Amino acid sequence: xxxxxxxxxxxxxxxxxxxxxxxxxxxxxxxxxxxxxxxxxxxxxxxxxxxxxxxxxxxxxxxxxxxxxxxxxxxxxxxxxxxxxxxxxxxxxxxxxxxxxxxxxxxxxxxxxxxxxxxxxxxxxxxxxxxxxxxxxxxxxxxxxxxxxxxxxxxxxxxxxxxxxxxxxxxxxxxxxxxxxxxxxxxxxxxxxxxxxxxxxxxxxxxxxxxxxxxxxxxxxxxxxxxxxxxxxxxxxxxxxxxxxxxxxxxxxxxxxxxxxxxxxxxxxxxxxxxxxxxxxxxxxxxxxxxxxxxxxxxxxxxxxxxxxxxxxxxxxxxx
Length: 320
Known about the structure:
- The protein is an alpha/beta fold.
- It has one domain.
- It has six helices and eleven strands.
- It has helices at about 10-15, 60-75, 105-115, 145-155, 265-275, 310-315, and strands spanning about 40-45, 50, 80-85, 120, 175-180, 195-200, 210-215, 245-250, 255-260, 280-285, 300-310.
- A seven-stranded mixed sheet has the order 4-3-11-9-10-8-7, sandwiched between helices.
């Protein structure tokens, strides 16, 4: 059964596109020089940096959903559960109503929901603006407890979360601040934006994780702190932009296997999901042709989660 919070539907009538803080793609002169009044690609609100994103592209959404449906038909016939979870852009929480999405972002969510013919998870109800980095488009791992619990309810896995409480994650999870000088890829594009903390979550089960680069078969760290000094420190999460990653958890207490077909947002969530599964396999079809996935992944008795940001689905040319 599709799972969409119906209260969001009322937003369509009360929000305006002007409130979104977004502008259409800038016009260009014949020599491709941006027009003088073109909107900047990046803009600052408070101490947060945002990127101007295009409005709903129905053809792009059609293309993405078509690829997911073909992937499902090709591989998921023997899967236990198949879900699509949508991650809103942080722009979507600018000028929204009562903590909900603004109209432009809601239009993307509604389009995806209408086109996807299977189980759907709306993660917008688990998130707000503070759950994203100020200087980067991605979400903060230490703020994903509510997301983990929502996914657990849908996919029927047990999570180490508090049933009732503000913190969501149980006391078994601890936070480690890796740096207080983090500047994300958006922050690199503007001057004078203050740095922020980058924090990772630890759990006792992580001590037994076996993490492998599926491209090479080699073991790698769950959090590669050497990436902190690289071009994009967010890539420290589970190897960053790899086409195939596996995490085995001998302490899971089950033999369940989760396949996550994902974009870069998935990297920060994979360590949390692995706490509940004997094995998690992450596939990124921005870097691997879908028709090759079956050569590397056995989908028998798996759970399958398509986990994508609205930004990627609305620019699905990045999917192979």
